[in-house]
Amino acid sequence: MSLIETPATWVDLVGPLQFNGAAGQKSALPAAASSGNSSDWQTIINGPLKEWGQDPSQLEDDGIEPPTRESVQRAADVARNLSAAGLPAPQRVAATGEGGIVFARQEGAYFSNIEVAADGSVELTVFRESKLVSRQRLG
Amino acid sequence: MTISPGTEPIGDDELLYRRIPASLNLYDPTAAPHLLPDAFRPNANDTTGLSVYRAKYKSAQEAARGRPGKVYYVTVLRAGDLRAREIEISPRPLEGDPGHAEIPGLTYQDRKTDRALEWKVLLSQELCLRVEGPFLSY
């Protein structure tokens, strides 16, 4: 069964993602499986990401590094990329406290995190029953 | 001989608090998963271990105290549950804060290891008994 017939999940993701300037590279993402998730992704881009990008200082706290404008922009790029690929939107989006953004999703027994770090790197980690089963750089 | 408050061993039945700023959106009681692993992410101050607070020395509201005007949640853990999963917990009293303790296996330096990532998920998804708050700090 192809990925086009099967709803894509985060567990299916294989990096790296394509970002601006990567034209011509072969996409490592599965083909778009559904466009029904795009509005959920858009809600995240226009909601918390936009809010944090406009005023990251609201997250300042002792020992806490708010997301940088760059990491917020990078997270929005990741969101658009995964949305275009038809992947389901995260159930949660949060600030890491170390200058980055994290998208999280529970899919059955699998818990997945996509972290966009302050330095712009993107990493996917997948856990099953709290055990790390996959860790890969997406960008 | 007198034992200084906070230096006595942590009992298995003791409850521990970990404060999380509400602004980070790491806890949302209306969404699933409710609590994200980065609630247990060591910050640059956690060089010798992840800071937690012993419930025998302060209330959850006191453990939530941070910057004035900010809102915090407090996660609740049980020491024996952590030890059962081979996560050690040690008393580390500070001046004026005898209830301060640490998880020495979770440090800022080692926060990106596979083990640290697994422990953060374990703490957030299996070992957290409940989350209290939100508390407005003053």
Spell out the blueprint of helices and strands:
The complex is a heterodimer of chains A (139) and B (138).
Chain A: H1 38-54, H2 69-84, E1 92-95, E2 101-107, E3 110-116, E4 122-128, E5 131-137
Helix pairs in contact in A: 1-2
Chain B: E1 15-21, E2 50-54, H1 60-63, E3 71-78, H2 79-84, E4 90-91, E5 100-103, H3 114-127, E6 130-136
Antiparallel strand pairs in B: 1-2, 1-3, 2-5, 3-6, 4-5
Distance between the termini of chain B: 38 Å
The span between the termini of chain A is 28 Å
Query: What fraction, in percent, of the residue positions of chain B are helical?
Result: 10-25%
Multimerization state: heterodimer
Strand segment tally of chain A = 5
Helix-strand string of chain A: HHEEEEE
Order of SSEs of chain B: EEHEHEEHE
Labels describing this entry:
heterodimer, A: 139 residues, alpha+beta, 5 strands, disordered N terminus, B: 138 residues, 6-stranded antiparallel sheet, 17% helix
Verbal overview:
The complex is a heterodimer of chains A (139) and B (138). Chain A is built from 2 helices and 5 strands; from the N terminus they run ααβββββ. By secondary structure, chain A is of the alpha+beta class. Chain A has one domain. In chain A, a hairpin with a 5-residue loop joins strand 3 and strand 4. In chain A, helix 1 runs antiparallel to helix 2. In chain B, 17% of the residues lie in helices and 24% in strands. Chain B is α+β, with helices and mostly antiparallel strands. Chain B has one domain. A 6-stranded antiparallel sheet of chain B has the order 4-5-2-1-3-6. In chain B, a hairpin with an 8-residue loop joins strand 4 and strand 5. Chain B has 3 helices and 6 strands. The model of chain B has no long low-confidence stretch (mean pLDDT 97). The termini of chain B are far apart. Chains A and B meet through strand 1, strand 2 and strand 5 of A and helix 3 of B.
